Amino acid sequence: MTVSDQPKSVHTLVVVAGPTAVGKTNLAIQLALHYQTVIISADSRQFYKQLKIGTAAPTSEELASVPHFLAGHLDVNDYYNVSKFESDVLDILKAEFPFRNPIILTGGSGLYIDAVCKGIDDLPDADPRIREQINLWLKESGIEYLQKLLEELDPEYFTVVDENNPNRLKRAIEVCLMTGKTYTSLRMNQTKIRDFKIVKIGLNQPREELFQRISLRTDKMMEDGLVDEVKSLNGFRSLNALNTVGYKEIFEYLDGAVSLDQAIENIKTNTRRYAKRQLTWLKRDQEIRWFAPDQIELIINYIDEMMAC
User: What is the fold of 3-121+189-308?
Assistant: First the structure.
């Protein structure tokens, strides 16, 4: 759905997307202050209140400067999925739009952003027999086998999925095997009509600069106490919320599998790979208007122009 196809509305959702470490939080806060509005998080790693340092969650000062929704609202034990996120965001928008306009949605989780902007297809329910077989493959052959299988079944989705997230791999493989179609072809084929306008802002910068920001941010996480944060979560390490960059590498260090220096380097490497996957996902969306993180005046002018349409 292009901007011209969207319903005429006095309400606008501004989406600020981009790869990790590019500066989305800072820009979103500047926009929220300018428009005197609120921010909704679309970063699936920042939903969990115990995961602060390793996810570069907004600081207490940042949270105090602008009202935030869905940032640190979950416990690592809580079950949460993209469908619940879509429902939560729509409820927040319904409650806030009478008082705020525009509203800012920001994060690097493209799947969650798409859920709000386009809706989620009704994919088939799990087949217990197929799910059991996939779990057996994972147990006997490891996650590498599932990665290879998904790459064969749906190479397009494999380029954007978090290949180290077994639940994402299992679900996509399951749908492929159940339907005989690719997971990509079944996901979000039918865009839902929203009763608000959507303006999408993408942030990016030269790769060398982005990678430098990733390196510096990782070093800052270590200074802020990432190792101690991970130690405090050791009892939850089997949960999916902890199967994410910044945590699994430190767990490897705590297990004695790698040195601390190697763990830090692994975080930087895996974060760079994650950023590349985020950009691959976002670049397919032709509705995103791309800017450098410091082009605040140009971004505000563009938002104002789109809101006036």
Answer: Rossmann fold (3.40.50)
pLDDT digits (tens, 9 = 90+) for 170-223: 999 998 998 888 888 887 556 788 999 999 999 999 999 999 999 999 999 999
Q: Are 156 and 181 in contact (CB under 8 A)?
A: no
Q: Taking the domains of the chain in order of start, what are their residue ranges? A: 3-121+189-308, 128-186
In CATH, what is the architecture of 128-186? Orthogonal Bundle (1.10)
Residue type at position 19: P
Chain Cα centroid distance, residue 113: 8
d(CA 180, CA 242): 32
* pLDDT < 50: residue spans in the chain: 1, 4
- 185's tokens: 């072809």
Query: Could you read off the pLDDT of 157-167 as tens digits, one per residue?
Result: 998 888 888 98
132/84 Cα distance (integer angstroms): 25
- The CA-based diameter of the chain, rounded to the nearest angstrom, is 58
